[in-house]
Design goal:
Blueprint: E1 3-11, H1 14-30, H2 35-55, E2 59-68, E3 71-79, H3 98-112, E4 115-119, E5 127-133, H4 142-154, H5 160-246, H6 255-286, E6 291-292, E7 294-296, H7 298-309, E8 318-322, E9 331-333, H8 335-351, E10 356-365, E11 370-377, H9 400-404, H10 411-421, E12 425-431, E13 435-443, E14 453-454
Parallel strand pairs: 6-14, 8-10
Antiparallel strand pairs: 1-2, 2-3, 3-5, 4-5, 7-9, 10-11, 11-13, 12-13
Helix pairs in contact: 1-2, 2-3, 5-6, 6-10, 8-10
């Protein structure tokens, strides 16, 4: 590292400390440092120089320009003279030892400068090196450095009174800047207090609205539950009476009467399905659903579903295929709720598949220790923008098959809530005109931390 010397000042007398301060300020200004950095350099250098001069005569302050890490720095090397002899003493009683000089360098220069290095020296004469980085946009050339040296040579030595006046002006300027910053800080603090008050008020409003929404949701769940219970009895009566009429228990029916009674029976069945879905949703939202954990054998579950859904299959146009799962380890979960989710998936697939097949299969992921149940069809498919709509309550996609196969719009939302209750999730992938695939992914063993976990199975 090459250093270019700017100026050297001896430290033999107290007046030399004033001169060092003056030169430090002048050189800083000529090198393009800001007013604040000029004050910092002047203060740090004068404090260290004072310690060096008190230690003994023969000290020196060398100002030079060096380059470190691709950037120019103002470097000042301040070396102390030979320590005073013990019998000579300091008539003013101000003798400062090497340790005091080191402390002064660390406390003062280290705070004000970019770098501060202390070398105790083999002969007891301490040397302190301090640096301040020059502005990045400033590049001092050798010609510029020679010009600075010439200007320093022409400038008169420091006058103690004049230097004291300048120091007082710097102090007043610093105090004014501090006062301005304090006022800005007070103003900012007031703005923050106002903002905090606004945030607190906003949080209070949000909490109030959240509480009202919670109450409204609770009332909705209670209303759905009560209404569903009240509707089930008359609906069951209507279904039973319609079936009695269709079975000719009270005599023959005309063709028109049979058609009308069939409409009544169909409407009652649809309403009964809606009521059951509403009741299940209300129970889940109210937290009144318990999971009955028991071993679930996948192949047994598939056999039960195949027999249950056979009446819904039009074998002339759609084939329902249950693929062997190969899952040997039983699943610890609620078989009834898994069956309910898969029945919904399969019935929907059968409704919206005019030709082709509906494939049901399961796979075990040993790494995640999960089992995925999938229902894939070759039906009408679902557009990308409607993939989330189908999981909203009472939402249905407009399609001729949808109008022909009336539904409640609650099946898939109920499936998603049941899956979450079992610690799993429901995913869907679909392409319009190609088909859809609904997947239920469950942990192989339901975590005991689940709020719906019931180890007794009751």
């Amino acid at each position: 590292m090459t250093a270019l010397r700017i100026l050297s000042v001896g430290l033999d007398r107290e007046q030399d400390v004033v001169l060092v301060r003056q030169r430090a300020r002048q050189i800083s200004a000529m090198l393009g440092l800001s007013q604040q950095d000029q004050v910092r350099v002047g203060t740090a250098v004068s404090e260290v120089a004072r310690g060096a001069s008190y230690q003994g005569p023969g000290g020196r302050a060398v100002f030079q320009l060096c380059e470190r890490d691709g950037r120019q720095h103002l470097e000042i090397l301040i070396s102390a003279g030979q320590p005073r002899s013990a019998d000579a003493g300091d008539p003013a009683g101000r003798e400062i030892g090497t340790e005091s000089l080191r402390d002064l360098a660390i406390v003062t220069a280290h705070r004000l400068m970019d770098a501060c290095e202390v070398d105790p020296g083999e002969t007891g004469a301490t040397r302190v090196t301090v640096r301040k980085a020059l502005p990045a946009h400033e590049r001092i050339t050798p010609a510029r450095l020679a010009e600075i040296g010439a200007r320093l040579a022409d400038s008169p030595d420091a006058n103690a009174v004049h230097e004291l006046q300048l120091q007082n002006q710097e102090l007043l300027s610093t105090l004014a800047e501090l006062r301005e910053r304090q006022e800005d800080l007070i103003s900012l603090t007031r703005e923050l207090e106002d903002t905090n008050r606004g945030i607190v008020a906003l949080y209070a409003e949000i909490e109030d609205k959240a509480e009202r929404l919670r109450r409204a949701d609770e009332m909705k769940s209670r209303f759905l539950s009560n209404t569903s219970h009240e509707l089930r009895t008359p609906l069951s009566s209507i279904r039973a009476l319609a079936q009695l009429l269709l079975n000719r228990m009270d005599g023959d029916l005309t063709e028109e009467q049979e058609r009308q009674v069939s409409f009544i029976a169909t409407a009652a069945n649809d309403l009964s399905e809606l009521v059951n879905d509403l009741l299940d949703l209300a129970k889940i939202e109210a937290g009144r659903v318990q999971v009955q954990v028991e071993p679930v054998v996948v192949e047994n579950l598939f056999r039960a579903l195949k027999g249950m859904l056979r009446p819904l299959v039009d074998e002339g146009r759609v084939e329902l295929v249950f693929e062997p799962s190969g899952v040997q380890v039983p699943l610890l979960s609620d078989e009834g709720k898994i069956s309910q989710i898969l029945r919904n998936f399969i019935s929907n697939a059968l409704k919206f598949t005019e030709q082709g097949s509906v494939l049901v299969y399961a796979a075990h992921d040993p790494e995640a220790d999960t089992i995925a149940f999938a229902v894939a069809d070759t039906g009408i498919g679902i557009s990308h923008e409607n993939l989330q709509l189908i999981f909203e309550e009472f939402s249905q996609i407009e399609h001729p098959l949808q109008r022909r196969s009336k539904g409640t719009g609650l099946g898939l939302p109920l499936c998603r809530k049941l899956a979450e209750l079992l610690g799993g999730r429901v995913d869907v992938a679909s392409t319009v005109g190609v088909g859809s695939s609904f997947t239920l992914t469950l942990p192989r063993s339901l975590a005991p931390t689940s709020p719906a976990f019931d180890p007794t199975g009751s």
